[in-house]
């Protein structure tokens, strides 16, 4: 469930595929717990930064570039700037795209 959004300097594609979800879980805990923390605004900075970094990679950004983008546009910035993006990414993972039409039968 890819999402296109502006981050830092331009629009990027964000997607947490199963391999990125596994890596996110290895770094921050179960995806459900991460989502609960983010949705309830009881999150750690790693929850936000790693969600965005790994979703950039899942969306096609090279891992090194994704790390550079986090360093430039997430670290040292107010968390609300990145929190909203992380919440949107996790919302897509947990609930899909509400604007996506059901396939015709």
Question: Characteristics of this structure?
Answer:
105 residues; mainly alpha; 10% strand
With strands numbered from the N-terminus, the spatial order across the biggest sheet is 1-2
Report the end-to-end length measured between terminal Cα atoms. 21 Å
Main beta sheet strand tally, sense and closure: 2 strands, antiparallel
Output the helix-strand order: EEHHHHH
* Alpha-beta content class: mainly alpha
H/I helix tally:
5
Number of strands: 2
Indicate the percent of residues in helices.
55-70%
Beta-strand percentage?
A: 5-15%
Describe the protein's architecture and organization.
The mean pLDDT is 92. This protein has helices at residues 18-28, 31-39, 45-58, 63-73, 79-95; strands at 3-7, 10-14. The longest helix has 17 residues, at 79-95. It is built from 5 helices and 2 strands. The protein has one domain (13-95). By secondary structure, it is mainly alpha-helical.
Summarize the SSE layout with pairings:
Elements: E1 3-7, E2 10-14, H1 18-28, H2 31-39, H3 45-58, H4 63-73, H5 79-95
Antiparallel strand pairs: 1-2
Give the structure's gist in a few sentences:
The chain has 105 residues and is mostly helical.
